[in-house]
Amino acid sequence: MQNRQWKLARHPLAGWPLDDDFIFSDTQLPVPAADQLSARTIYLSMDPYQWGRRRAGIEVPGDVCHGRTVSQVVHSRHPGYQEGDFIFSTNGWQDYGLVGRDIDFFNYMLPRKIDPSQAPISTAIGVLGMLGLTAYAGMYLQCQPQPGETVVVSAASGGVGQNAGQIAKIKGCRVVGVVGSDEKCDFVTDTLGFAACINRKAEDFSEQLARACPDGVDIYFENVGGAVYESVLPLLNKQSRIALCGMISTYGDDREAGLKQWRMTGKPYFDRHQVKVHGLFVGDFVEKYQAQFLAEMADWVKDGLVKYKEDFWDGLEQAPKAFSTMLSGGNFGKTIVKVSDDPTTN
Ligand SMILES: NC(=O)c1ccc[n+]([C@@H]2O[C@H](COP(=O)([O-])OP(=O)(O)OC[C@H]3O[C@@H](n4cnc5c(N)ncnc54)[C@H](OP(=O)(O)O)[C@@H]3O)[C@@H](O)[C@H]2O)c1
Prior knowledge:
With 346 residues, the chain is an alpha/beta fold. The protein contains ten helices and 15 strands. Strands 3, 4, 5, 6, 7, 14 and 15 form a seven-stranded mixed beta sheet that branches.
């Protein structure tokens, strides 16, 4: 048996991923050393930060593309794991990966076993994984939503956004989503139950957003930056809060344009109303809050208070296409590549 892998073909300097940025190849199955294990990739997470790593040169040509995964242990030389265990790992864009503390800097969440009786195992890279924790940290812990407040969430149907908005709803807020299509708008209002949702591509987007927030905005959960960010800033209320989670609209910019965007911090608006802006790096919340987050979010999912939407692609060979589709907004929900059979769904 061979291990199929996607490797980075060249250092992408600007723009969005192209087919030529990746090479598909075969190699031998990995063999674990002492205290390591090998794991079969079941679900592979597609995340915007992966493009940042490639652009920044953290991943270099020839490297297997980095990616978080839900995997099943095939061979364990680690006393804490047995063949058949489901784990959250960082196999990357390949069929099989090695897992061990020293293998990948991003393994700080490892080794976490996944309990298939708690929820579908794919949720470990979605609503019950880093994306859920990001939403929980930014919305719940940082912005502390209060009943009756108006909350705006951008990329509201996406991996982080769908969770952030639903947490604000659980806390009694009036939640307004911003998305990139009418179909996504319908999902956000009809399925997730947000009070309103605006298509960011509408010509009169700013006016529509202002009309949807007649009492102004108390919390903005920022995922996209650019024109959406500029439209929300004038609506901010006194002592409003922003979770500055991400600015995906800038991730394909060349260096100068990217710097210009990041310089556009919105300081005049923040100063006028003493707005609190929270820097948000999910890794800072893992140690202290992961157990609390998992307990609370798992209950919300079980009770149907938090719904989640996953956007599956079938087969490892689809990884580059799934990745570029997600980065350009063509995804609908949390993007996951199904690499191999999920025995818990048979
Ligand atoms: N701070 C942290 O620790 C942390 C951790 C995880 C993720 N993040 C950030 O969270 C954000 C969402 O990540 P995700 O994994 O949940 O992805 P996602 O929302 O599932 O997918 C990305 C979404 O971004 C929107 N988008 C793409 N290009 C855009 C553009 N030019 N202008 C406006 N919107 C655009 C699209 O939604 P629409 O078409 O519906 O607008 C697309 O579906 C990203 O900014 C990511 O970097 C931050």
